[in-house]
Amino acid sequence: MREKLSAIYENLGLPRLIIITFFVVLLVAAVPLGLNVAGLLGDAVRRWAMYGVLVLAMVPGIESGINLNFGVSIGIVAGLLGSTIAIEMGMSNPWGSLAAAMLFGALVATPLGIGYGFLLNRVKGSEMTVSTYVGFSIVAFMNLVWLSLPFSSGTLIWPLGGKGLRNTISLSDSFGGVLNNFLSVTIGDPVNGAFIPTGLILFFMLMCVLLWLFMRSRTGVAMSAAGANPMFARASGIEVDRMRILGTTISTVLGAIGIITYSQSYGFLQLYNAPLMMGFHCVAAVLIGGATVKRARISHAIIGTFLFQGILAVALPVANKLLPGTNLADVMRIIISNGIILYALSKTKEGN
Amino acid sequence: MANLRHKALSVLSDNKVVVLFVVLCVGAIYVSGAPLTFVARELFTRIGRNGFMVLSLLIPILAGMGLNFGITIGAIAAQVAMFWVVYWGFGGINGLLLTVAIATPIAIFFGWLVGKLFNTMKGAEMIAGMILGYFADGLYQLFFLFIIGGVIPVQNETLIIRGGVGVKNTIDLTGNLKYALDTVSMLSLAKVAMWVLVAIVVVRLVLRVMGKLEGPITHDAAMGFAAILIYGLTNVPAVRSFMGTDRLLLLDGVVIALVAVAGFQLWKIVNNKIIRRDEGFSVRTPLAIIVLCVAGFLLTYVQPVREILVYVDIPVATYLCIVLLCVFNNMLLGTRLGQNMRTVGNSRVVANVAGINVDKTRIIAMILSTVLACWGQIIYLQNIGTFATYAAHTQVSLFAIAALLVGGASIQKATNSQAIIGVILFHTLFIVAPQAGTRLFRNAQLGEYFRVFVAYGVIAVSLAMHAWKSKPRPAVSGKVEDTPEI
Fold it and tell me: By CB atoms within 10 Å of each CB, which of A130, A324, B225, B477 scores lowest?
């Protein structure tokens, strides 16, 4: 029994154990506080599927050997750009609009991802340091782009006189909520019950399956091998650099698709500085799920997103009940997400 | 001639970052149409405000730990101390000294922790420092939003959010710590210098009497004489009234600096040629410098230059701190510790073989940098006059590091002059970018976004360039060998 427990402990690691305990404690605490637990769990599920694809984007990056892809913001801005183009086209069919957004997003993300992959191949050993600031720079650069895009759709630009695109763009006329509402059900009470966004979950699962199939394919296995042991992979005739570029590109494209799924669930596109720290949340989530700087599985992304977003979904109302009008949940998110990244980094030395 | 051209080209290519930003700054000033007097005045304020922080980055670079993104933590130490000092109601230079006295031990402790952490992830200090900065920001928010008032009882309506828990968004420093350092008069500084000299002389004399110090006494006599000279000079009415102020007109500052430099070169010539009769000494360089000084002096009579020089005044005490830090950074190189840091920075293996305690040296470097960053933040806040509780520390590392890199520094090598040039160029861009954006594109926002992009971009490019060239890695391996510990 004792060995078993210590084996579980070894497997989970201290921070993950703390996080799981914390999640359970929060859920238990929600009951005496008179919070609607079913609603909270429904919220956790919605946020899980909403962030899922973005976190999934971490997996091919880590597996191909570029470590934690802090530069996923490149994919994110590509997805945002694709969405604005789709809105500008003014398609009235929400499904068509969503497909267009994803298509354009992926089209923008692919060349960016390839270029980014080339860059990361030149800076082996410091990928994370470089990618963090490359990610920041591209978000800062896109600020200039958002200000100067010559779009004319009324939902995109400021109504009176202002320059450039709006900070938040409503998706109610395009693809807002289209996945969420597809086959959605409400468990229990129609007002306070748990809203299950079936379509969103299905889409997330579809993405997981596609990625899983790819990772099982010849190329996918070669890519993982290139990340796990570059020297051995090269000896067996795998082109390591090309595999790394492939992993980076897939990660970037998934980032683009991820932000579109996120935005359709949220109902708004958030431009300008909103994507700045998003990469950090994705990294934190996959690490909480059990990934390391060197290895990540799809299950890590699924579990990690659920734990991370679950804590946030439950912590927010609990914190509001305990200390009304404060942002304790936000502070906690900063501490948890950066704490887990720091822990993972201290376990695996960069360039080691 | 070809040689000269070659030389000029190589100087240009060595300093291409600086050249690029000089062109960018000149262009932005021209486009913005801002009067030069305005730009100069703003610029000198900002040098005083930010210079110290940028200089605090140099020591970790020397020790091979890269750009210290962890200076955020030094800033946090400063802000914790500053909150309590304001809360207790202290102000002026005494309040500032109290802030320093409280903040320094906190910064030493934090620096030690950071150093310990960085020793467990050698080679990944920069990414760790970035994440550590965000993590520390979370703890800082927890402390200021919930622990102050929530756990530690605090009662103050101007500082605490209504309800008694958490500190307000901004703390006004007007009337307590604002300009606490900037307004220290030259007279007080001279007095401090005098007492320091006296103290040194007394200590040395005591040591001499105890027989622990030997050698000629001329050094002590000179110092004692200097102390008396300062005392005498400060009692001359004209000098006294000139030094009674806290600000020095830039014109006076420039003239004093030119006279000092010229005088020093003259002394060099006299010392080497006439007193020591050193045959190998060439008078060409000192003479050239003296000629330049005279030219500079004449330049102050040119109308546009004079206009600027008369328009701008500098806070003496703050600038003195910056100069002292430059001197400290230079002196450190001459000490054993500085040499150890350089060795560790070049190669941890060699340092280990040479018997240097690598881990300890790196921890000392982090402690020094954190403490200096902490003081830098105190200087920054006392000058800016409002303490944005939750924002003041968040951009510290971004802007300081960007400034340093703009000055031509790299991840392995940075000097005092690169830091100062960087502050000048980076902040010139900051001052004029919004106006330039307005004039060029009728959009001030564009200029503001542009300068933030420059800050991020310059860091990204230099991190990438560093990783790009510093990896002569083996052809087969995708991995980089970590230096083995012996």
Answer: A324
* Closest of B169, B173, B92, B75 to residue B385, by C-alpha: B173
Percentage of chain A lying above the pLDDT 90 cut: 28
Q: Is residue B290 in some structural domain?
A: no
| Rounded distance between C-alpha atoms, residue B217 and residue B459, angstroms | 51
Total domains in the fold of chain B: 2
**Residue A284 CB partners (closer than 8 Å, separation 6+):** A308, A336, A337, A338, A340, A341
Q: Which residues of B touch A240 (CB under 8 A)?
A: 478
The per-residue pLDDT for range A109-121, each reduced to its tens digit, is 999 999 999 998 8
CB atoms B453 and A141 under 8 Å: yes
Considering only alpha carbons, which residue of chain A is nearest residue B144?
A: A331
Q: With an 8 Å Cβ cutoff, are B463 and A133 in contact?
A: yes
| Confidence bin at B339 (pLDDT 50/70/90) | very high
Contact A124 B476 (CB under 8 A): no
B64 and B345 in contact (C-beta within 8 Å)? yes
Q: Are residues B224 and B208 in the same domain?
A: yes
State whether residue B301 sits within 8 Å of chain A by CB. Answer: no
CB contact under 8 A, B124 and A65: no
ipTM over 0.90: no
Shortest CA gap A166–chain B (Å): 13
Where does the pLDDT of residue B213 fall: very low under 50, low under 70, confident under 90, or very high at 90 and above? confident
The residue assigned the tokens 């050239």 is: B288
Same domain, B66 and B144: yes
Q: Which of A123, A143, A147 sits opposite B468 (nearest CB)?
A: A123
Select the residue from B456, B466, B469 to test the A interface by mutation, using most A Cβ atoms within 10 A. Answer: B456
- B134 to A334: CB separation less than 8 angstroms, yes or no: yes
Instruction: List the domain range (segments joined by +) for residue B228.
Output: 185-245
A331 and B142 within 8 Å at the Cβ level: the answer is yes
Q: Quick one: B174 and B321 in the same domain? A: yes
The residue type at B207:
L
**Main-chain phi, psi angles of B387, to 5 degrees:** -105, 100
Q: In terms of domains, do B333 and B238 share one?
A: no
pLDDT digits (tens, 9 = 90+) for A292-344: 888 888 988 998 999 888 888 888 888 877 777 677 888 888 888 898 888 88
Q: Please tell me the distance from the alpha carbon of residue A292 to that of residue A297, in angstroms, as a whole number.
A: 10
Query: What does the pLDDT average to over A159-172?
Result: 79
Provide CB contacts within 8 A for A339, sequence distance 6+: A15, B135, B138
Distances (CA, A) of B50 to A315, B319, B337, B384: 39, 11, 27, 10
Question: Do B145 and B105 belong together in one domain?
Answer: yes
B464 and B337 part of one domain: yes
Return the pLDDT at B480: 39
- What pLDDT score does A349 carry? 52
Residue B285 placed within a domain: no
pLDDT digits (tens, 9 = 90+) for A227-243: 888 888 888 888 888 99
Q: What pLDDT digit, counting tens, does each position of B355-406 carry?
A: 899 999 999 999 999 999 999 999 999 999 889 889 889 889 888 998 998 8
Please indicate, yes or no, whether residues B326 and B227 belong to a single structural domain of this protein.
no
Query: Would an 8 Å CB–CB cutoff place B259 in contact with chain A?
Result: no
Model pLDDT, residue B104: 95
Considering CB atoms only, which of A234, A326, A328 is closest to B476? Answer: A234
User: Does B459 contact A133 at a Cβ distance shorter than 8 Å?
Assistant: yes
Q: Buried (b) or exposed (e) across A274-296, using 16+ Cβ within 10 A?
A: bbbbbbbbbbbbbbbbbbbbbeb
For residue B390, give how far its alpha carbon lies from the nearest alpha carbon of chain A (Å).
Answer: 11
Chain B residues in contact with A326 by the CB 8 A cut-off are 145-146, 165-166
Interface contact A334-B141, CB threshold 8 A: yes
Please state, in angstroms and rounded to a whole number, the distance separating the CA atoms of residues A332 and A183.
Answer: 34
Average pLDDT of the segment spanning B462-486: 52
Question: What is the CA B361 to chain-centroid distance, rounded?
Answer: 21
